[in-house]
Design goal:
mainly alpha; Herpes Virus-1; two-stranded antiparallel sheet; 35 helices; flat; disordered N terminus
């Protein structure tokens, strides 16, 4: 049974099954309140699935709440002798803080990972609000009236100091995650190279296993139901992004999260809930042809066959190794599904007859083996034809990328990069870009020696080859070892050149690669020496290019480096930042405020220049109505300015 508690305005929140009112108005025994608070600590202690974006903050908050257990135990020992107004007020305020904390922690444990990542700044603000409530409650503990021991008092004072520091702390943002989220949610750029970003997001947000994706699907469904039409654009973005991540993972996204349905539809049954055992664990759709695998688990035939054809040899649900790949029809379950559909006046989805997946897979494997063999042909036309076909196959779906790699396609492709033939180089580097979307392939491509050749093509290839070389370096450098390798092999200068002289698409490819590489501290220095800052400033001037946020995000990384601060910190650039803070989009304002804060923390004269350009009133406005992250950055800037009295 769900536990329940009453929130400040009377809202019920879960613990113990009892409905409570405030301590002061109920007149009930204070030991009940203490018991209630102990149950809260027990409940949050049982949470084990905190989302990665808030995990550190969640564990820190839980640890601090657990430190209050000795205090609650000593109060409980006093029992009914706790009767003063000060003691009752303390318990009431502590209870409010606990309830807010539990609601926040529950959301971070059960909520949508994509939503929590998108709204990370807002949730960090909520954590700070909890710290503030706890600090206020602990600030007025009537120790003498409660008879609290000196040892416990010292522990509580330690907690108070920790909460005070936590309220002021601003953790460094995961810039790579923020940049990837920005690109993934962008409607302007939906190229194939973005699959590498989707893969990186899936890993960072822990959405790379079947169980993870199914859990996220359910969480997003609950979010849709809870939000209704509120913030519909953001919710739709999350739904679309989840679908893309599923496709990159090799799963068909067929589950409609929030679409109108007829009485005959089984995608979302309104009249009755589809029994859980009738749903395929992979697609979460009702099964029409259920089959049993070696572990005894049942799946829809088409879904599990696709899983096996992707070279998986484990049971998707249990993770156990499959000792054989035979699929046995589950006639008993199919009969039950048919009977249930008839009883509920529903029709099973009808599937078009087609060639079985096993036979089509065999044909594909034969084709890939033939093409890989042709890569080593002595005739250029045969090699070119094989590369072009493999490029197309590697673009189509994740299964093909795995099959091409497993059948030895990567080593000969890397060798073709070194052929002095521009057409073959162009198609080969693009095929490797597609293959690099798979994480295992990234390591293999780098190990085979592709990076030096890709850098050469980036310097001397055709326009398309240069653009795809930049995208390939970006994809490969999601691995930290490859970031270092690209930097040491002098891959940054040609990327800077592409940023300065390339087409719009080329500049975007270069900017994304340079951002990724600049996450490595040594590469920031290399990028600055290669002259990255002037072309970034030029990008800021060309609003039609649509790359302002990307350029500002790179400049924010460079501003953390002393050489970068020296070169960026010119008055003309400060004026440009102030202009974005004044008239930019909400995201422009957020990024520009972040850069100004980074520069201003080490150089008060730049803040003075920004004030002279009229930034103050716009920072106040952003602190009031900007994005969550922009509000935090604007407040930090205003606080810093207020401490530097000679500035204001």
């Amino acid at each position: 049974m769900d536990r329940q508690m009453v929130m400040e305005g009377g809202e019920k929140v879960g613990v113990g099954g009892n409905v409570f009112v405030s301590v002061s108005s109920s007149g009930r025994d204070e030991s009940d309140v203490v018991k209630e608070l102990m149950e809260v600590i027990e409940t949050i202690g049982s949470y084990t699935g905190y989302r990665k974006t808030q995990r550190k903050e969640c564990l820190s908050l839980v640890r601090r709440l657990k430190l209050l257990v000795p205090l609650l135990e000593e109060i409980r020992e006093l029992g009914s002798s706790v009767s003063s107004e000060a003691a009752l007020n303390f318990l009431a305020n502590l209870r409010k803080a606990f309830l807010v904390a539990m609601k926040l922690l529950k959301h971070c444990n059960h909520g949508s990972k994509l939503y929590l990542a998108l709204e990370n700044e807002a949730f960090m603000s909520r954590f700070h609000g909890v710290y503030d409530k706890l600090h206020q409650a602990l600030d007025v503990i009537p120790y003498d009236e409660l008879g609290i021991s000196v040892e416990v008092q010292e522990q509580i004072e330690l907690v108070r100091m920790q909460l005070k520091r936590a309220k002021k702390r601003t953790d460094t943002q995961d810039m790579e995650l923020a940049m990837d989220m920005m690109v993934a949610f962008s409607k302007k750029d939906d190229r194939n190279a973005d699959s590498a970003i989707l893969e990186r997001l899936a890993i960072k947000l822990e959405l790379h296993t079947l169980s993870d994706l199914n859990e996220e699907t359910l969480a997003v469904k609950k979010l849709v139901q809870k939000r209704g039409g509120h913030n519909a654009e953001n919710i739709q973005q999350i739904i679309d992004l989840l679908g893309k991540i599923k496709q990159v993972a090799g799963l068909e996204e067929t589950t409609a999260l929030d679409v109108p349905v007829s009485s005959k539809s089984l995608r979302r049954c309104q009249s009755s809930l589809i029994p859980h055992e009738f749903l395929c664990p992979i697609t979460l759709e009702i099964m029409t042809d259920p089959v049993i695998v070696a572990t005894g688990q049942t799946y829809e035939r088409e879904s599990i066959q696709k899983w096996l054809d992707s070279n998986h040899r484990t049971c998707p649900k249990t993770g156990q190794y499959l000792f054989h790949l035979s699929l046995a029809p589950n006639f008993a379950l199919k009969n039950l599904i048919v009977q249930w559909c008839e009883a509920n006046n529903l029709e099973l989805p009808k599937k078009d007859p087609c060639i079985g997946p096993a036979s089509s897979s065999t044909e594909l494997i034969k084709e890939i083996s033939f093409l890989v063999e042709n890569l080593s042909s002595s005739e250029l036309d045969v090699q070119l034809g094989a590369v072009v076909k493999l490029r197309m196959l590697s673009k189509e779906n994740p299964d093909n990328r795995i099959l091409i790699a497993n059948h030895g396609g990567i080593p000969p492709l890397v060798q073709l990069l070194y052929l002095p033939n521009s057409k073959i180089q162009e198609h080969t580097v693009t095929a490797l870009l597609n293959l690099s979307i798979d994480k295992a392939n990234k390591r293999l491509i780098a190990r085979e020696g592709a990076i030096p050749a890709i850098i050469q093509i980036l310097q001397n290839g055709t326009h398309e080859a240069r653009e795809n070389s930049a995208a390939a370096l970006c994809s490969l450098s999601t691995l930290d070892d490859n970031k270092v390798l690209v930097g040491t092999l002098n891959g940054i200068p040609p990327l800077v050149d592409l940023l300065q002289h390339g087409t719009t698409r080329g500049k975007k490819d270069a900017a994304t690669a340079l951002f990724n590489l600049s996450l490595n501290q040594a590469n920031r220095s290399r990028a600055i020496k290669a002259g990255i800052i002037p072309p970034l400033l030029h990008v800021l001037e060309d609003k039609n290019m649509g790359m302002i946020d990307e350029a500002l995000s790179i400049l924010l990384l460079l501003a953390s480096h002393p050489e970068g601060r020296n070169e960026i910190g010119k008055l003309s650039f400060i004026e440009t930042l102030v202009e974005f803070i004044r008239n930019g989009t909400p995201k422009n304002k957020e990024c520009a405020t972040s850069v100004l804060l980074q520069l201003g923390l080490t150089n008060n004269s730049l803040l003075l220049a920004a004030l002279q350009y009229g930034v103050y009133e716009h920072l106040v406005e952003i602190a009031r109505s900007g994005t969550n992250r922009a509000q935090r950055k604007a407040n930090s800037l205003l606080n810093h300015m207020s401490k530097c009295e000679h500035i204001l």
